[in-house]
Amino acid sequence: MRVTVVGAGIVGLSSAYRLAEAGHDVTVVAAAPPEESTSAIAGGVVYPPIRRPDERIVRWTAASLTVLRGQDAPGVRFRRGRVLLAAGDPDPQWLTAVDDATRDGDRVEFTTAVVDTPVYLAWLLERVGALGVRAEYRPVTSLSAFDADVVVNAAGLGAGLLAGDDAMVPVGGQVVHLADPGLTEFAVDQAGPGVTYVIPHGTHVVCGGTEEPGRGDTDPNPAVTADILRRCRELEPRLARAAVLRSLVGLRPHRREVRLERVGDVVHCYGHGGAGITLAWGCAADVAALVTAG
């Protein structure tokens, strides 16, 4: 079957991989290559930083971790870390999906994958190419413009526009990269009104973040950079003297719930917000099943 996957972020590429693996003739079409996608800016710690009453989130997370454990891919390491919850919060829904989870008061510790997303995306693009997937980079304005049996709409933030879905909202997220002083664990503080996180990748540490619904630009704000540095250095004091490398902004494709369904000859898979890395492989399996089922 001829399948066009619209989108070259982590969701699009993992879907293309599963479809090609199943024997389909797959082409990826995207406005920009993977290294320019929102996925490439993500912090990359695999657990769902979203609070949604959706049982699929746990299943997709567990499935993605299973895939990442078995790939031996560059840019992926399994590390232990901690998440600080708001006082009195119940156990997170996703806790059963991660490894070796323990809780002490409002502190949860567990082991999960930490993904250096630009490195991993480059490897994944190479892998789908080895499976015969073609990649084309050009603007996409309609899902009906392709000579394909099925189209997979995995275009991230652009997917809502292509689907005529006004439930999609960009949520800006600014991060700061610092030189890694040798951290071995990640840390996330979601006890406050926002979320602060420190995610080490060996050469650099991704520090964040912000949640800015409706943001339309990707220009880093120096005042926000300073605030992120303050919060992250309080969370992890060993970053006090770490050199600042760069600031980046991504626009998360937020939707109240992930849309994953088939409508005619289109399979929609979008609305992952800041959890694309976490949910991608679980969603990709569902995408492939929907395409094959017809």
From TrEMBL:
The FAD dependent oxidoreductase domain, residue ranges: 2-290
Cellular-component GO terms for this entry: cytoplasm
Catalyzed reactions per annotation: a D-alpha-amino acid + O2 + H2O = a 2-oxocarboxylate + H2O2 + NH4(+)
InterPro entries attached to this UniProt entry: DAO, FAD-dep_OxRdtase
Enzyme Commission number, as recorded: 1.4.3.3
Keyword Phosphoprotein: no
Cofactors, names only: FAD
Gene3D superfamilies listed in its UniProt record: D-Amino Acid Oxidase, subunit A, domain 2, NAD(P)-binding Rossmann-like Domain
Positions bound to FAD: T38, S39, V140, G273, G274, A275, G276, I277, T278
Keywords: FAD, Flavoprotein, Oxidoreductase
Molecular-function GO terms, alphabetical: D-amino-acid oxidase activity; FAD binding
Positions contributing to D-dopa binding: Y197, R252, G274
Biological process terms in GO annotation: D-amino acid catabolic process
Similarity comment: Belongs to the DAMOX/DASOX family.
Name of this protein: D-amino-acid oxidase
